[in-house]
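hiii so my PI (J.) wants the whole complex modelled not just the main chain, which honestly fair. so below is everything: two entries, each one labled with what it is. i double checked the lines twice but i was tired so who knows lol
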Amino acid sequence: MHTLLDSVRTPGDLRKLSVIQLTQLAAELRDFVLHTTQTKAGHIKSSLGVTELTLALHYVYNTPDDILIWDVGHQAYIHKILTGRKDKFHSNRKKGGLSGFTKRSESEYDPFGAGHSSTSISAAIGFAEADRLQGKKRHYIAVIGDGALTGGESLEALNYLGERQLNVTVILNDNQSSIDANVGALAHFGNYKALCDAFHLDFEGGVDGHSVEKIINSLSRSKEVNRPKMIHLVTQKGKGWKAGSGSAKATNSLSFQDVFSQTLIRLAETNDTIVGVSPAMLSGSGLHEFGARFPERVFDVGIAEQHAVTMSAGMAANGLKPFCHLYSTFAQRGYDQIIHDVALQKLPVVFCLDRAGLAGEDGPTHHGAFDPGFLNTIPGIVVAASLDGSALAALMEEAAGYSGGPFAIRYPKDGSFGKLEKKELPLGKLQKVKNGSAKAVISFGAIGLEVQKALEGSEYAHFDLVYLKPLDEAGLIAILEEYNEVIIVEENSKAGGAGESIVSLAGRIGVDCRIKCKCLPDAFIEHGSRQQLLEVTGLDASSLKEFIDR
Amino acid sequence: MHTLLDSVRTPGDLRKLSVIQLTQLAAELRDFVLHTTQTKAGHIKSSLGVTELTLALHYVYNTPDDILIWDVGHQAYIHKILTGRKDKFHSNRKKGGLSGFTKRSESEYDPFGAGHSSTSISAAIGFAEADRLQGKKRHYIAVIGDGALTGGESLEALNYLGERQLNVTVILNDNQSSIDANVGALAHFGNYKALCDAFHLDFEGGVDGHSVEKIINSLSRSKEVNRPKMIHLVTQKGKGWKAGSGSAKATNSLSFQDVFSQTLIRLAETNDTIVGVSPAMLSGSGLHEFGARFPERVFDVGIAEQHAVTMSAGMAANGLKPFCHLYSTFAQRGYDQIIHDVALQKLPVVFCLDRAGLAGEDGPTHHGAFDPGFLNTIPGIVVAASLDGSALAALMEEAAGYSGGPFAIRYPKDGSFGKLEKKELPLGKLQKVKNGSAKAVISFGAIGLEVQKALEGSEYAHFDLVYLKPLDEAGLIAILEEYNEVIIVEENSKAGGAGESIVSLAGRIGVDCRIKCKCLPDAFIEHGSRQQLLEVTGLDASSLKEFIDR
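here's the output for the full assembly
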């Protein structure tokens, strides 16, 4: 029974209700969300926590004319339901369905999309500055969590905002959470008033984020003040959430994440210098287990990739061996630091690039498509990828013993491995996976598992490149000279990747071998399950078989 | 007469002097710097401003055992002179000489090098965390300017520091300057006390930065407090600086920077939506002139590349046409934002990537070697480079009219052009520069000017690639089919660049043409004049002639 909800098609309908009705609507919305989707608890909880806020925002402000920007965008489920997307909400995060994040192409109520954090204030400022020049007046609201506020870009934006005195309202959704519990002095001591004093912003603190009425009062007051301001809202992440059967894993198989976690613990047992660093991804990475074993040697810096990388560089300069865990797509946030602080100074930081390749339901903001290209161009860095769990363990072992500079290892969120096989993957050497003749497939990373399936029962050979940098030129030349045809398969963009590197080598030595390359298309790839996306991009075993045979 | 200075070889000697003698030493140091070097006024002024601070730091702290990290590193001239590098100081910024920045390989007194800003606090924290684990106690000092403090990484680091309560001292050198006058609410209102309250750091404000005695007193007190703290020092940038004949330009010729500036003004005269955005590089970019003409349409956001890019994205989403000016090497700081906020949303932001290629005396932290590779991997972005001033103007015109997404144009700090020639460079089309036979050289960007010199009197043809992305496949295939040999020349790293892209295309179509590639070596290139570095890397006209003829 969603009597009220059924009557609300747009925020315009909402504005006809009484404040008391909004409280009832909040309950209906929670019920609807919980009955419609059970996937991605983190996103649902973030969204449930802002149910009252979402209602109040659309009630007070004249969206979509007023500009409402949700940071990260994963807290926008209620927003989506209230802005004409209720009937499609069941398709959330499914292939062809709604995105799990805000998205410009999805609705005029999403003026700026996001899947990464800490961009909303800068974006709102951009809208405000543009209006100022174009003589338009309206309201600009950025909703940001206390976790995302620790990202440097947010703080850069507040500093700018305070000087320019634009009419931007920052709603700080303080649920004391990042992905895990939030860290940092701001969250720990909660002195957001002082932060606003430093940046010369108006501040209203401690608003009850689960009272629609109080939020409406606060927003209505704020609306009359033509100055930048922060409204600090206290909410409870996942308010109304009832844990279902959950995602308790019953299998004994190991994912890449399990292998990362177990291997790091094993290496750290005999090497005191090893530490784990993560920007707010302890649970997603497997570093929670490492931290349980070595509480003094795990460093969750919060959402702060730049700081994570440079701090790792400082640690390495002072005798430690940091394993800095980054999702491939978030490594983009620390790119300059990887170049300028780590590689240029030849500091031995290991970068474990998780969620490499197609990230599945999180979609285009989260696919790890670019890291091989953007890393390959950096002098002196090692760029490796893991075929499987055993390879990841072997590469981490290799990296632990390497002191020549940074060492990056990419692997996807995936994997189901049994007992790991002890193997060695010496630096700069490719590996033979399967004997064969006529054609040879060279794969880079875990996409090699699809290649293995594609080659079942085939006469063709299979090699694992292992290292994109340094490239095993001798090994590759031997392959190029032995086989009539070489097929290169990788789960990343073309530019700077394995295909271009090997074709370029073949061109230089002038070898007479047909080479075909398969990689991710030069496009942003939408969301869907990893298997669906492999099919969409022609990287599943069956498409690969056809490509190889062709 | 540098009586005292001549007696000081290391900080140990310094510590034997009286505080009164330090004041005399400060005068001698200023005199020495001004008589030894006159290049790079910005660096000299930054260094002169911290003369007293530098003396006090080495006097109070037990360097090099205590960890002293200079943010950016260009304020470290006095530090270098006092730490055993006085006799080499005349070689500062010259090929084979001292670096203009701090550098680990140069001295044990430089525990962490930097040429980019805002990294010092993170690095100092890394040292402190490593010591904590390793049971070592000492002091950690990060010296950072008020300009660099606005970079998001600094604020990420302060947030971390306040929670961890490490014994790190942040010296805020407040000279009210970034490269130009500093911007942002922090600098404007100067409420650093509130910032420290927010981040839970001890704070001492308003210390006279030109009184050695007062600084020493302050540092000595701070040294006894085992907590994180910020000491706010008021200094005068360039204290003691006497402007010499200066760098007044007497020529009528135009640099790329002049062309950028004039063209943007011309385009903006007929297109109201054009605005200029820069992270603290108004004078370096040529945007000062644009701002003088259109004061409402220029946006200096301070040292805050992430914010600069996302704000540009917000502006573009709201109807403006931002020209976001970034030094190539600093674009690395906004890389995620270029991908996630601009390209993914297909927003028409123009990125003018200045200082592309070899940046000369600033050295490895400042060379713009990587942008073609790291941009080429991004779907839907246009990646172009300017052969000369006329080409830059034409590309900016093309970009101004392009609404399909981001458009990047790279060009070096260089150029001496007469009257510009009106030309058109339609999207995705390469251009013939010179007719010829047998061999064809395809160059990407301003290195084509060296190719032109190399080909003087030669029979070979010369083409300007203009666009790395989208690649002119038809045009390239025609060249590959017509000539026996094709030589590709570019001033950037190999991975993802023009050479690999074209060789990869040739491989795909199976053309029978010898291809040779010349690009920057896969190494960080040291400092020197641009001409010297072109020679070192084999990219000067004479080396290129040899390479082409070979």
